Amino acid sequence: MGAGVSNWRLAQAVSRLGQLGLVSGTALDPILARRLQDGDPGGHMRRGLDAFPFPAMAERVWQKYFIAGGKAERTPYISVPQLEKDISRELNELCIVANFVEVYLARQGHSNPVGINYLEKIQMAHLSCIYGAMLAGVGYVIMGAGIPLKIPGVLDRYVNHEPAEYAIHVHGSQEGDDVTMHFDPREYMEVELGPLTRPKFLPIVSSNTLATTMLKKANGRVDGLVIETRTAGGHNAPPRGKPVFSEIGEPVYGERDTIDIAKLRELGVPFWLAGGYGSAQMLREALAQGAAGVQVGTAFEFTNESGLRADYKKALMAKAIAGQARVFTDPLASPTGFPFKVAQLEGTCSQAEVFAARPRICDLSFLREPYRTAEGGIGYRCASEPVTLFVAKGGKVEDTVGRKCVCNGLMANIGYQQVRNGRREEYGLITAGDDLVTIARFLQPGRTEYSAADVISQLLSGCDELQIVAQQVLDPCDDVCFV
């Protein structure tokens, strides 16, 4: 769904109904900072900060970013420090606090598990973010967009607040280069705490090979797998083999990209199917194939509880009702080089003229690529930054063609768009799965909006045994998983 769409409100609503609600762990540090600069409407961030176990750290974050009554509309948001290998203490603290607050709020009002979803590609945020989520009692860590072999070991270390490390990918690195990040929770603890509960770990994979690799080579326990197909929103795994494109420029997937479900069953761990499984029929089909359940994103993206801007929800819902909704799998948009699904909507960067009017600015920098400099250090570049700057850092000019600023677009999607020069706002870049075209089926007669409860009710329709499970509020990952 993108950063901040599956927020604490949506995750709380889903978990309250007996399923597994997930908060997006992407960019929670600037999201918390911008919520505070908007004056913390409703006082929810303050509630989360008050529950944080290290009060002095929480107070530093509050004092740095909170603006009583909110900033002026045309005033830019204060930027947060950028991610680097040697991350600053200030940013580590903000990441810890932000992840704690989001998970803590999602867990209020019920006793069911809540999970968090991270992108492996945003490697430099993992250590402090995961620790903050575990401080809040997160029940599941789910991670895609990479091969997170070393995450289980991090979870194991944090149970007893022990130091953890994570090696990042640095383009052009050589043997002997220091590419490993370190984080010691005890350097941040203000009081002694007891052991934390280790969350279950579910990597997101898109092939049988990767599923097998995760189970054989991970440095700790893998509790299950989420199997995501190319119809899911956000970043998609690229097609295997030589790139082939359709008439409209979308990547074409073939037989090599198909998941063998029978082989998945042989691995002997629970698995959930994702991408195109947002209906009762597909849920039943998944269960019949041996899946423990399904992961659903797009249907929940357009619920009342999600963080997607109300005007974007309304406009895309109208398109869906009229049969005009469309998602384009853009092979160029993301600076990562992975295909990125973009919902087509006027006034957003999905439109060529809107994209062309935006200056190339990279100031959030979550998708920057670390690279080895000529001096043997680490630099950072992004294919969506100014072309001359990217090329000066050793990047290829052809890699900049069509690249969009996903980071600023995703922040604009949830109403935290940056203001430039006191007048120009960032444009949204909405991601959604192919199921966008059918979201109108969740509407009750005469309605133009729907809730998380409406989605779950429809998904469970005709599945009597699952309705009983939901009513009993059992552990959702023993039966069926909705996120």
Topology, element by element:
Elements (H helix, E strand, L loop, with lengths): L7 H9 L4 E4 L3 H10 L6 H8 L3 H11 L23 H18 L7 E6 L6 H10 L4 E5 L6 H8 L5 E4 L12 E4 L16 E6 L2 H10 L7 E4 L32 H6 L4 E4 L5 H9 L4 E3 L2 H4 L8 H12 L5 E4 L9 E4 L8 H6 L11 E4 L5 E4 L5 H6 L13 H8 L5 E2 L3 E2 L26 H9 L3 H9 L11
Parallel strand pairs: 1-2, 2-3, 3-6, 6-7, 7-8, 8-9
Antiparallel strand pairs: 4-5, 10-11, 12-13, 14-15
Helix pairs in contact: 1-5, 2-5, 3-4, 3-5, 5-6
Characterise the protein shown here:
The strands form 5 sheets. The chain has a 7-stranded parallel β-sheet. Strands 4-5 form a two-stranded antiparallel ribbon. A two-stranded antiparallel ribbon has the order 10-11. The chain has a domain at 8-309 and 446-478: TIM Barrel. It is built from 17 helices and 15 strands. It has helices spanning 8-16, 28-37, 44-51, 55-65, 89-106, 126-135, 151-158, 208-217, 261-266, 280-288, 298-301, 310-321, 352-357, 387-392, 406-413, 452-460, 464-472; strands at residues 21-24, 114-119, 140-144, 164-167, 180-183, 200-205, 225-228, 271-274, 293-295, 327-330, 340-343, 369-372, 378-381, 419-420, 424-425. The protein starts with 7 loop residues before the first helix and ends in an 11-residue tail after the last helix. Helix 10 (280-288) links the parallel strand 8 and strand 9 (293-295). By secondary structure, it is an alpha/beta fold.
What's the quick description here?
This protein is of the alpha/beta class and 483 residues long. Helix content is 32%, strand content 12%. It has a domain at 8-309 and 446-478: TIM Barrel.
